[in-house]
Amino acid sequence: MKKIFIILIIIPFLFSCSNNNKELSEEMDSLNMSSLDTNGVKTRVKLPSPVEFYLFIRESKAQFNAQALNTSSKAVNYISSNQKAINFGIYASDLAYCTVYEQQQETNDYFKTLKNLASALGVNDGYDKSILTRIDKNLNNSDSLYQITNDSYWKVCNYLEDNSKSNILGPILIGGWIESLYLGIKAVEQFDQNNPIVQRITEQRYLLDNLLDYLSTIKQTKDIEIYTSKLVNLQSSFVKLASNPNNILITKEQYKEIGQKVIKIRTEITQ
Amino acid sequence: MRWLYNPKNKRKYIVHFFRILLILIVIISLLTKKNSYAQQCFNQFCKTEDLGKDFDYRGQSTFAKLFPKDTCRVQAILYSGNEIRIMMCSDPTLGNVQFKVYKSIREYKRILDRIEKKESQEPIYNLDKKGNPIPKLDDWGKTVRDNIGEIQFEIKSYKKSFILDTIWKIERNTKVEILFDSRKGSKIFTSTISKTEPITIEVVVPQTSDLILKKNNSCVGIMIGRIFKSTNYKGFSK
Predict the structure, then answer these.
(1) Residue percentage of chain A with pLDDT more than 90
(2) Over the stretch A2-55, which tens digit does the pLDDT of each residue have?
(3) CA atoms within 13 A on the CB side of A185
(4) Is B133 exposed, middle or buried, given 0-12, 13-18 or 19+ CB atoms closer than 10 A?
(5) Does an H or E element contain B36, and which?
(6) Which helix (H) or strand (E) is A43 found in, with range?
(7) How far is B153 from chain A (nearest CA, A)?
(8) What residues in A contact B115, CB-CB < 8 Å?
(9) Which residues of B touch A19 (CB under 8 A)?
(10) How far apart, in whole angstroms, are the C-alpha atoms of residue B57 and residue B50?
């Protein structure tokens, strides 16, 4: 009788699990191939990782600017899952910056912060305990730290993309991108349109386009809508560059306008 | 069934309940455990020699499970100063999967959305004898600059004014120019990027008449690799 009872309890669960699985995998198929669906062709939108941007600014001889980073102690203030996700992006970007500039202690601190945020968001791929141990072991090896942190960001983005967690990936991409642009702006001491960092900042309009394209494919939560409208506002400033005469890439006023909008968005995210 | 409801067997009931719960947790976790596409597909059908030494594929590479006749596109950005290698690796059961790389030329048009009237405060600066605004100094006598490096001036007062804020909508048209087509023989696209470009990669899985293969999806990996080489930045051109 006992056995029959156990089987009776288990059977409905088994069925419900397999049904859920089916639904989940169907949902995954459609989202995995996500969604700028033009004429039946599915499009995926990608962004270069912040590491690529930081490698460039280091190459351009910009100094490491610890004061510009979002302090890891502020992580406890981020309560909602949206705040956690978007600041996860900010911290992941800060971590990439510290790694590129070979700042071992900061790398360790930011990795720990990210591990906690990842755990709170239910994302452990890329930020598990074993990685933290690898970080500890490689604190004096900048090259390994770079590989580990690059791996982690890549793994977490893939995990979220593959598991249809666009509600987390969207804010992470926004945070990661806005922070790299912010640190890029902070790396420019004085405006000069021939400064390679200023030039790379102007090229961020392509990334912004891709980011907005990606955001348009995901579920429109209130938070996503708010950030999309802020990014569209920033895009309107980048679009002005297209009307400049051929010999002018960006004017001081245009740079200032972009800079102020980026700083405002970043401040609103991290406050 | 009586043991379930018999208060004398309460302890036994609790033990049984937790046993069942444990079994259920194990079963559920086994059923829901699955690898991600990236884990399943990453590198699976790529030849090591094709991937090339020193190329970093983390960043914009992507993976999908496609069916015969499927087409998928990937929008990516290639930064200047990088040597890049783009290739596609697919399960041989999908047949001769082809890919193309397009350069996306984006044109923007600003369209007036609305005009909003906003109150603003315009600073009135303290002026020196020549009529120029006086730079603001910090406690150490150093010129104060704002977040983006602009010199700050001493403010005497503010003047209230109204400004008309124009809100624009942006329309984007994208024209494409083909950079690479795997049907022409080569299976790997390599290039040194002198100017940052948005690109689109299109992957086309051929049709099949095989009824079993028609219903099978399999891994396709679109690998975007780079080697950072920026010591000679070529600059931006419009």
Answers:
(1) 54
(2) 555 555 444 444 433 333 333 333 322 222 333 445 556 788 899 999 999 999
(3) 28
(4) middle
(5) none
(6) strand A42-45
(7) 16
(8) none
(9) none
(10) 12
Cα dihedral A45→A49→A54→A57 (10° resolution): -20
Q: A10 and B23: CB-CB below 8 Å?
A: yes
Q: What residues of A are in contact with residue B143 (Cβ under 8 Å)?
A: none
A130 Cβ neighbours under 8 A, 6+ residues apart: none
> Residue A129 is which amino acid?
K
State both tokens at A24: 């989940």
Report pLDDT digits (tens) over A134-171.
Answer: 777 777 777 777 788 788 888 888 888 878 888 899 99
The pLDDT assigned to B155 comes to 92
Q: Is the dihedral of CA A152, A154, A155, A159 positive or negative?
A: positive
Q: How many residues does chain A have?
A: 271
Contacts of B219 (CB under 8 A, 6+ apart): B37, B40, B41, B44, B45, B63, B64, B65, B89, B90, B91
Q: What is the pLDDT of residues A96-138, one digit of tens each?
A: 999 999 888 898 899 889 989 998 998 877 777 777 787 777 7
CB contact under 8 A, A206 and B149: no
Structure token pair of residue A246: 């051929």
A42-45 β-sheet, strand order:
A42-45, B71-78, B197-204, B98-125, B155-181
**Which residues on chain A are in Cβ contact (under 8 Å) with B80?**
203
ipTM attached to this prediction: 0.79
pLDDT digits (tens, 9 = 90+) for B105-135: 888 777 787 888 888 888 899 999 988 999 9
Q: Which residue has the tokens 């950005």?
A: B77
**Within an 8 Å CB–CB cutoff, is residue A244 touching chain B?**
yes
Going across the sheet that includes B218-228, the strands are B62-66, B218-228, B82-90, B188-192
Contact flag A49-B170 (C-beta cutoff 8 Å): no
- Whole-prediction pTM: 0.75
A46 and B224 within 8 Å at the Cβ level: the answer is yes
Name which of A59, A203, A213 is nearest B75 (Cβ-Cβ): A213
Tell me the shortest Cα–Cα distance from A81 to chain B, in angstroms: 23
Q: Does A61 touch chain B (CB under 8 A)?
A: no
Inter-chain contact B150–A17, Cβ cutoff 8 Å?
no
